[in-house]
Amino acid sequence: MKRIGYCLIIASLSLMTSCLGASMDIVMRADGSGSITLEYCVSQMLESIGRVDGFEHWPAIPVGKADFEHSIARIPGLRLSSFSVKEYPRRYSKPPSSWGPRLGDKDLVTKVKLDFKDTAALLAFLDSAGSRASLVQESGKSTLRLVLLDPINDAIDADLLSLLEEVSAGYEISVSFTAPKGAALSVIPPSVSDARTVGKKVSFAIGTGELLSLRDGLTLEILW
Q1: Residue 8 resides in a domain
Q2: Contact partners, residue 153, CB within 8 Å, separation at least 6
Q3: What one-character DSSP code corresponds to residue 65?
Q4: Is the dihedral of CA 76, 130, 8, 206 positive or negative?
Q5: What's residue 60's pLDDT?
C-alpha cells in the first residue's frame, strides 16, 4: 500500500495510511501569501489495526502540536497560527466482527491553521520531496498540481483492500482552494468526480474508501 500516498497533511501529502478522513482548505492572496487550514480524523479503531499481524509498520500518526512545530520550523515562511485536538464519537458504528465490539470507539479530530509567506513555503509544506505537489507560473497564471494517489500497477490484496474500505466508510478526503479572482479545478482522471465552485472557492471531495479503490491514480490541477 506504499503507493497510496497518505493524506494531504503535514510534510509531503503523507498521512493516507494513518488517517480516515482529511480536509485541506488553502486561501491564496494576490501577493502569493495565504493560509492552510487542515482538519483530519484518526479513528481509535484504525490505530488498533497496528496490533493486527501485517500492519505493524504503518507510519505513526502525528496528532501532537509538537509534531507540527517541529515540521514547520524547517520551512522558512511558514507559521503555525492555531492548533486543536478533540475527541468525538466514532462515525463508523460497527467495527468488523473479527476485531471485537469495543475496539476503538472515538475519532480524534485535529485542526490546524498555518500561514505561509509565499508559494515556496506552501510547496515545501505540501511536498518536501517535490514529487506530489508542483506549481507552474506562466503568462500571469498559476497552476498547482497535487497528486493524491499514484497509479497502482501492482496486485492489491483483496482482503486488505476490503478491510480498508470497510473501516473508512463514512469518511472522505477533501481539498478546497480560494483565490482573489477565483480559480478553476480539474480532476484527473475526469471520470472520478466533478469539481465544485462556490464564489471564489473551488473544492473536491471523495470518499476515503473510493479513493483507496482507484487504480489509475488521482491528481488535482488548480488554476488561478
Answers
A1: no
A2: none
A3: H
A4: positive
A5: 45
